[in-house]
Amino acid sequence: MATPLPTPGVGPGAGEACASCALAPDAARLARLGLDPGRYSYVVALAGNPNTGKSTVFNALTGLRQHVGNWAGKTVARAEGGFSYGGVGYRIVDLPGTYSLLSTSADEDVARDVLLFGRPDVTVVVVDATRLERNLPLVLQVRQITGRVVVALNLVDEARRHGITVDVRHLTRELGVPVVATAARRGEGLSDLLAAIEQVATADDPPAPLRLTHHDPELERAVSALAQQVAARFPSLPNTRWVALRLLEGDPGIEAAVRDGTLGDLAAPTTDTAAEAAG
Amino acid sequence: MTDLLDEAARLRRDLSDDVGDRIVESLYTDAARLAAESVDRDGAAARLTVDRALDRVLTHRVWGFVAMGVLFFGVFWFTIAGAAVPSDLLYTLLVENGHTWLRDGFTALGAPAVVTGLLVDGVYLATAWVVAVMLPPMAIFFPLFTLLEDFGYLPRVAFNLDRLFARAGAHGKQSLTMMMGYGCNAAGVTATRIIDSRRERLIAVITNNFSICNGRWPTLILMGTIFVGAVVPPALAGFVAAGAVVAVVILGIGVTLAVSWALSRTVLQGESSVYSLELPPYRPPRVLRTLYTSIIDRTLKVLRRAVVMAAPAGAVIWLVSNVDLGDASVAAHLVTALEPIGWLMGLNGIILLAYVVAVPANEIIIPTIVMLTLTLGAPAAGAAPGVMLELGDDAQIGSVLVTTGGWTLLTAVNLMLFTLLHHPCSTTVLTIWHETRSLRWTLVATLLPLALGFVVCASVAGLWRLVS
């Protein structure tokens, strides 16, 4: 296990108490495992728009010091690391920043493939509290795929400075998943984030994927009809409406997954695959 | 399974053509509603005006470029002025004293001359040189550059350059990959993945080498300091040296644009893509943390790579200098063979041989040149490695190159140009191959800069000799 060097302002190595940051209450439960997650039980994917602080959250959780840049598109390849929380191992995958999952660029394909075919146990969507409107489309799209989501409302310190307040309770209610206010640069809210990740990872009965209603009867009819057929073909697939929408759009990636049957594999429980990969 | 696809196709035919747009539209409508309900912007605006005022200057058509020049000039001036003293100290400690102690130690232990030569005069000396020459400027330059980056300045540079790239027929995001190249070209080449069109991506890959990378900054800074800065009175030396480095950087941007333009008009013709570049807010950098990470991660990482490359290179240098083939060493034969081309380019055979030895890492160019100059350039009788022990600081590196190597200001200027314009290091070449999967484009990206370097250096040398 790689024990990271102590970093001013960011916190402790494995198991040490953290004197200077907001992690203190739960610091004893967090062990940063750096690059090597060892044996892990859950896979966490980190998604979000470019330049919202995904890499900062990633570093804070893993203790790695992947360079963080203040610009969009800093993380191109995906980075992976690990941490352990409450004695349970987590593997965490940092995805490239994308504005959507509509598959119009290589980054969006990477992000979508991990979310769809990698089937992470928890997807943390990091959003910029100062630019919520531009960040929410991605959150909604992720929510259409899965209910195992935690929203990290990041950069709340910057939002505060700019006089912007976000109603976290309203967002939580509307999205149906935990929304946690964080300022990852200062370590604020990380213990809440960890607790939310644990809660979603261990939930037996996650919220169903979000049903986005289309204010267009014609489209709504087509989606419902096709979703029924998808459900008939792949009975245990959770996000049939989302798949139906993509098929209506003629999304080549999803069409290929239907053709070669990989879409059916998505129904397999993920913890088994994670355990295999770890063992 | 295909009946499902047929069904989807049938349903799609019944819908109007813009189904995709309508799906996206309803997504954004929902997002906008949810955001409007959840966000309270009371008292916003006040702070944003600071960002806006800064942007008005830093992304101004004219002042944006002035600010860019001043900031980069400042960074290099600090680096050059600040690195002088620690460089001297490290030099005295590692190269002068360390080498003597080690040599005495090996002799006292009764080690054979070949072993002492290979390990102490080869491996150790090359490594010590790399540390002494590179560590101080890197330890100053990287934190400063990272502070600018954390503040949010680099995307503004990209914004300023975007217009120019568009006019050159390249993708605006190429300005971002170019910025990444200033750290490491291999990273810059990987970063071109953010460009979707293959045509524009290839242009970005091929021109990334014109961004001066970590391994090349020290060469430029050293040449600027000991040769260009030395032609003016000492009071101005730092400014002139920094100016020379900035001039090479600007030339690099010019070459990037010119080559992009030429490629997009010839072998890589096509449409330009449209994209949006988001300017992040200015964020006060966390100075201590930046200092820590850029010294630990960046400086030591680059140094480790340099040392790993320098050790075997030191052995190679010692071997080619000490293994004789007929009447002279292997190195002497190679240098004699390369000398005519070197002369034509205003350089010399030793510099070209150094570039062959340093293919794995540009970091070791200067140490390689100095070691080869000392073993080959010295009068045949006194060609002992002990010559080196009488040297001291940067200025004395200069005096070795001038008195023993026969360098002139032309040699230094052309070395600076060749530092900008030559083949990428082997890591970058491998990355280019990996990213393009094309032997043809890998060859183009490798040989095009080298050809440019040859033409530019030979032209400058020709003109220089004509004038003087």
Structure description:
The complex is a heterodimer of chains A (279) and B (468). Chain A has helices at residues 54-62, 106-117, 132-145, 156-161, 168-175, 190-202, 217-233, 240-249, 252-259, 262-265, 270-278, and strands spanning 30-32, 42-48, 79-85, 88-94, 122-128, 149-154, 165-166, 179-181. With 279 residues, chain A is an alpha/beta fold. Chain A has two domains: 24-202, P-loop containing nucleotide triphosphate hydrolases (Rossmann fold); 217-278, no CATH class. In chain A, strands 1-3-4-2-5-6-8 form a seven-stranded mixed sheet, with helices on both faces. In chain A, helix 7 (217-233) crosses helix 8 (240-249). The longest helix of chain A is centred in the last third of the chain and has 17 residues, at 217-233. Chain A is globular and about 50 Å long. Chain A starts with 29 loop residues before the first strand and ends with a helix. Chain B is mainly α. Chain B has two domains: 59-271 and 284-290, no CATH class; 309-467, no CATH class. Chain B has 19 helices and three strands. Chain B has helices spanning 2-14, 19-38, 48-58, 63-108, 113-151, 154-167, 174-181, 185-191, 198-207, 217-228, 234-265, 287-322, 330-344, 349-357, 365-377, 394-404, 409-420, 426-436, 439-467, and strands at residues 39-40, 324-325, 328-329. Chain B has a two-stranded antiparallel sheet. In chain B, a hairpin with a 2-residue loop joins strand 2 (324-325) and strand 3. In chain B, helix 10 runs antiparallel to helix 17 (409-420) and helix 15 (365-377) crosses helix 16 (394-404). Chain B is globular. Chain B starts with a helix and ends with a helix. In chain B, 47% of the residues are buried. The chains are: A alpha/beta (279), B mainly alpha (468). At the A-B interface, helix 3, strand 7, helix 5, helix 7 and helix 8 of A face helix 1, helix 2, strand 1, helix 5 and helix 6 of B.
